[in-house]
Design brief:
about 160 residues; single chain; globular; Rossmann fold
């Protein structure tokens, strides 16, 4: 009985951030909830040229490409809650997040999603729901690196995690 409650409210934030916007929000979640964080990274790093990256990735998005991730070690049994953080690329989640979700069983976890984008969520949430049910989600809008979503809205969402 005692062991069952150990992970009752333990949160793991799993995220990918290309330009830093998603990571900025993850840092806020970590500070506010004192949770653990797993930063996902592609095994073969993406180019630093954003336009080249999105041009290259656009053709692959419809194929729901799975890419190889840098190795990581995480014991998911320690967590009752998982927060997924991903930017939107071509109206859906990044290949990095898709690869994690295709390779990871989140059954029995309370899963929430934090999506960062430049103004349009696209079908990101529907894509995530193909792999796991979601308890909650938040759409966080940036224009370049300027946050447009209200800080209070983000703080309220985090407090409900």
């Amino acid at each position: 009985m005692e062991g069952e409650n150990m992970n009752q409210d333990k949160i793991l934030v799993v995220y990918y951030s290309y330009g830093g916007n998603t990571e900025q929000i993850v840092n806020r979640i970590q500070k506010q909830k004192e949770c653990d964080v797993l930063k996902l990274e592609p095994l073969v790093p993406y180019t630093n040229d954003y336009q080249t990256l999105v041009d290259d990735e656009e053709s692959k998005m419809d194929q729901e490409e799975v890419i190889e991730l840098k190795p990581y070690e995480i014991d998911l049994s320690k967590y009752s809650k998982v927060v997924l953080g991903t930017p939107v690329w071509w109206y859906t989640m990044t290949p990095v997040m898709r690869s994690f979700l295709k390779q990871t069983d989140l059954t029995g976890k309370e899963v929430s999603a934090m999506i960062t984008n430049g103004g349009w969520l696209g079908h990101t949430l529907d894509e995530i729901k193909k792999y796991t049910p979601l308890k909650s989600s938040i759409n966080i809008v940036f224009q370049e690196h300027d946050l447009e979503t209200k800080q209070s809205q983000i703080g309220e969402w985090i407090s409900r995690l």
